[in-house]
UniProtKB/TrEMBL annotation:
Catalytic activity, reaction form: RX + glutathione = an S-substituted glutathione + a halide anion + H(+)
Organism: Aedes albopictus (Asian tiger mosquito)
GO-annotated biological processes: glutathione metabolic process
EC code: 2.5.1.18
Ranges for domain GST N-terminal: 1-82
Enzyme class, broadest EC rank: transferase
Compositionally biased residues, Pro residues: 238-249
Region of interest: Disordered: 228-249
Name this polypeptide is given: glutathione transferase
Keywords: Transferase
Keyword Phosphoprotein: no
All copies of domain GST C-terminal, residue ranges: 89-215
MF-aspect GO terms: glutathione transferase activity
Family named by the database record: Belongs to the GST superfamily. Theta family.
Length: 249
C-alpha cells in the first residue's frame, strides 16, 4: 500500500524524502501542496498536520512531518539488510543525528538567510551571510576527510538530508564546490548513487522560476498590506485580538 507524501517538488526537503523512499523501494502517493496558494491551510490538511508544513508523510495511522524526522521513520520502518541507512549502534547513530541537526540548523539555515533577499526580490545577500555558508561547507569538507560518506564508510540518512542542501548551493546561488575537494567528490558520488537525483533536480529547476515569480509577487503584496493602517479595516477602531487556538484551553 502506497505511503502518502504531501509535498512540492520545488521544496528541497521534500526531495530528500523522495530520494530515501526510492532507495528503500517504498511506494509513495504524491499529494502536491502549493504553499504559495496557501493550500497548507486547507482544513483537510490542517486536520493532518496543524503545523501546516511540508513534507508531511502519512503511513496508515502514523503521521510524520519535519523532513529529517521522516527520514528517521522511513529508515527505521523500511530499512533492511544492506539498506538500513540508520545505524543501530548508539554511537554511530549519534554521528548521524548530529549531521541531521547540522544540516537544518547550520548549513541550510545559512543558505536560507543569504538567499532570502534575492528570492524575494528585495535585495542582495549579505557578505557576512555568505561567509557562514563557506564556514559550513568547510566543516563538511573536514568531516569527509578520509570518509566515503558523511558519517563514515556507510551511506546513511545524513547523506540523503545534506545532499539536498548542497544541491541548492550549487543550483540556486552557483556556489563553487570544486574548491572543497572532499565535498565535491562526495557530491558527485551522491549523484551516481541516488537514482532519481538528476531527474528530481531538473524538475525542481524547471518549476523554480515560476515559484520565484510567485514568491516575489507574494512578498510585494505583503509589503503593500503592511503599509495600510492597522485600523483601516475596522472604521478607525483597533481590531479585536486574534482568538487563541481552539485547543489552547
Amino acid at each position: 500500500m502506497p505511503v502518502d507524501l504531501y509535498c512540492h517538488i520545488v521544496a528541497p526537503f521534500c526531495r530528500s524524502v523522495i530520494l530515501l523512499a526510492d532507495a528503500l523501494e517504498v511506494e509513495l502517493n504524491f499529494i502536491e501542496v502549493n504553499v504559495l496558494k496557501k493550500e497548507q491551510f486547507k482544513p483537510e490538511f490542517l486536520a493532518i498536520n496543524p503545523q501546516h508544513c511540508i513534507p508531511t508523510l502519512v503511513d496508515g495511522e502514523v503521521v510524520v512531518w519535519e523532513s529529517n524526522a521522516i527520514l528517521m521513520y522511513l529508515a527505521e520502518k523500511y530499512g533492511k539488510e544492506g539498506k538500513r541507512y540508520y545505524p543501530t549502534d548508539i554511537g554511530e547513530r549519534a554521528k548521524v543525528n548530529r549531521l541531521l541537526f547540522f544540516q537544518l540548523g547550520t548549513l541550510h539555515r545559512a543558505l536560507s538567510t543569504y538567499y532570502y533577499p534575492i528570492l524575494a526580490g528585495i535585495g542582495e545577500g549579505k557578505p557576512e551571510d555568505f561567509r557562514k555558508i563557506q564556514d559550513a561547507v568547510c566543516v563538511l569538507n573536514k568531516l569527509l576527510d578520509g570518509n566515503k560518506w558523511l558519517a563514515g564508510e556507510e551511506l546513511t540518512i545524513a547523506d540523503f538530508s545534506v545532499v539536498i542542501s548542497v544541491a541548492s548551493l550549487e543550483g540556486v546561488i552557483k556556489f563553487d564546490l570544486t574548491v572543497y575537494k572532499n565535498v565535491y567528490r562526495w557530491y558527485q558520488q551522491c549523484k551516481k548513487e541516488f537514482g532519481k537525483f538528476e531527474e528530481l533536480t531538473q524538475e525542481a529547476n524547471e518549476k523554480s522560476q515560476e515559484m520565484i515569480a510567485a514568491v516575489r509577487q507574494y512578498k510585494l503584496e505583503e509589503i503593500n498590506s503592511a503599509k495600510e493602517p492597522c485600523c483601516s479595516a475596522s472604521g478607525g477602531k483597533t481590531p479585536p485580538p486574534k482568538p487563541p487556538c481552539p485547543d489552547s484551553s
